[in-house]
Amino acid sequence: MTSMLTRGTRTRRAPERRTAVLESVYALLAEVGYDRMTMDAVAARAHVSKATIYRTWPDKPDLVAEALGCHFQEQPALTDTGSLRGDLMAIVTVACEICQGPAGEVVSGVLTAAALHPALARTLHESLYERKHVIHETVIRRAIDRGEVHPDTDPHLLHEVLFALVLTRRLRVGEPLDERFAVHVVDDVLMPVLTHRAA
């Protein structure tokens, strides 16, 4: 009876341990970066043994990939502002705010490692691009319905240009991701690119 109760307790606690480990990984990535994050530090922060971690994640890239996938799975709300420019300002502003916070620190630190580890690269692409693409599809669909852009406008064009501009700005030390930058991105780049074939 005791062994059955013990197994039941362990089973119930397993999801909690997993969550604690993944949250600890993300927090450490934001604080010290990918290279300086160690399994010892993760174990200490999550209050688990290294053996517990290695039973589920055979190496550091796999562990980090799952932590990133869990953290970036939520979709930000997208309000219909009534115009293409308004929608663009909204998503650029949110992107800048995210990149200036802990998420920006984490992504910047993992980018170099992702070039060497396919699992990390795949997770970054899924988390930062594929899961967020519905936002850009929605913005373009609304703009098409309003007659603001050509019906053949590809949402990937918006997503790729915006992603590249914000990420590049984030990697330039000392360059703020502020309202002035957001206005520049929208008015000088995105609007001309997206409306040059407007109906």
Description of the structure:
It contains 10 helices and no strands. By secondary structure, it is mostly helical.
Tell me the layout of helices and strands.
Layout (H helix, E strand, L loop, with lengths): L1 H31 L6 H8 L3 H7 L3 H12 L12 H17 L1 H13 L3 H13 L2 H14 L8 H17 L7 H17 L4
Helix pairs in contact: 1-2, 1-4, 1-6, 4-7, 5-8, 5-9, 5-10, 6-7, 8-9, 9-10
- Distance between the first and last residues' Cα: 74 Å
Gross geometry: elongated
CATH homology-level superfamily of the largest domain:
Tetracycline Repressor, domain 2
Rg to the nearest angstrom?
Answer: 21 Å
Average predicted local confidence, pLDDT: 86
Q: Provide the number of structural domains.
A: 2
Share of helix among residues?
over 70%
The quaternary structure here is single chain
Number of helices, where a helix is a run of at least 4 consecutive DSSP H or I residues: 10
Low-confidence stretches: 1-12
Brief sketch in words of this structure:
The radius of gyration is 21 Å and the shape is elongated. 75% of the residues lie in helices and 0% in strands. It is an all-alpha fold and 199 residues long.
Which labels suit this protein?
single chain, 199 residues, mainly alpha, Arc Repressor Mutant, subunit A, Tetracycline Repressor, domain 2, 2 domains, elongated
